[in-house]
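Justification of resources, computational component.

The compute hours requested in this renewal are based largely on the per-chain cost of generating structure records like the one below. Each record pairs the submitted sequence with a full structure-token output. That output is archived, and it is also reused by downstream analysis tasks.
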Amino acid sequence: MTVKLLMLVIFFAIMLGVGFYSRRHATNVNDFVLGGRGVGPWLTAFAYGTSYFSAVVFIGYAGQFGWKYGLASTWIGIGNALIGSLLAWVILGRRTRVMSKHLSSATMPEFFGSRFHSQGMKIVASLIIFVFLIPYTASVYNGLSRLFGMAFDIPYSVCVMGMAILTAVYVILGGYMATAINDFIQGIIMLAGIAAIILSVLSGQGGFTAAVGRLAQIPSEVPVTLGQPGAYTSFFGPDPLNLLGVVILTSLGTWGLPQMVQKFYAIKSGPAIKQGAIISTVFAMVVAGGSYFLGGFGRLYGDQVEMTAAGTPVYDSIMPTMLSTLPDLLIGIVIVLVLSASMSTLSSLVLTSSSTLTLDLLKDNVVKNMSEKKQLVYMRVLIVVFIVISAVIALVQYNSSITFIAQLMSISWGALAGSFLGPFFWGLYSRRVSRPAVWASFIVGVGLTTGNMIAGFVGTAFIASPINCGAIAMVLSLIIVPVVSLFTKRVEFEVDPPHVEGAIDREYEQELEAE
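The structure output for this chain reads:
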């Protein structure tokens, strides 16, 4: 207990210290939101990765999909690394950096408003972000209750409040730079923790070969491969089609999520983006690939996992059950790992939400002539508001039988990326995008995911899996924008997106000369 508490105290002290250190990097809006657009590749890559993978992935998704698909769930982590990280950096990184700077945009709604000359589009995009990031922010707290209960016997409310207060302090003090530095530290903890846990869990099962052998003897429960032994150790698992839906949702989704794309706004130009792409991909391969690989052995603990009245496992209990047999030192590492994953994502989400609401909704629409000093005050106040709201939602969900919040959390990625992916991607690469095409994507992204959820509440959902629904919304967004743009008037834009690379090169040359 002393060792575990000492690890937590050191962890909290470092996070607060970084917040105080980063105050000098948060004196104006550009510094507070984007770190002055001069953040290096290592900090940006780790900020991207730690925002990507929260406790939702390590505790919830790894346990749930590892149980459903066995070792084939590792494909989700591989997809996250190759599609969600590498391709996202290669295809979006440089272009996002220069276009956002050219448009003087610090947020995704601001990008839409400037790129498509529409104030209404900027306001609606900011509202979509507010509505769907809040429940996602609340979901970040999931998994903490079981881990802290197992290690310290601390009430869930204390865990939530402690994490919320600590995150609020360092984000309010240091803004994006404090978040990026802490993300780097938290990312190192995540890398080391995942490796240590995998080795320890497999060792407890008699080694990798013995664990796979035992897993291969479990017959499949999936209708597609019902009763088939070895399905949970097969190459594509017992249900390849639904596995593909998870890969698409969790990998392609990052291309349209505002808290992920905003990392490209802040990075240095030039070779930093190439370096960041490599670092981010390796990070994702280890953290996401390792988490899902570990979750694939969840069925070996089937006799210990908590079950519902219907006989299905409580998915959030699978990973904590696997970890409960670890030595105290490793349990301490797990707790710090999950705290790191949760706080890094939480800080990114609340900074994105507060900056979006301040710059895109309140400024010039609700509050006229908002000075830069007032903008900083509003953002800091809204950080507190968002953290309080998310903490309250998490506590209400935990202490009641309300399922609506959980359903809404599950469609957050689908609604956000389903709305923004197509307009953002084609807005960067094509000069033929029209306003009706962007509005159509917004309507389909939000309409399909929320409509499917409502249909599930009142009767039968159009698409049984909300994950598949979100994946379909993303693909439709990429298709709808160019198709609708063919039949509607394009938005005239002073910079031809296909020729942006030249502007990037000129900007980098100017920065080198300045140095």
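The longest helix spans residues 156-204. The mean pLDDT is 85.
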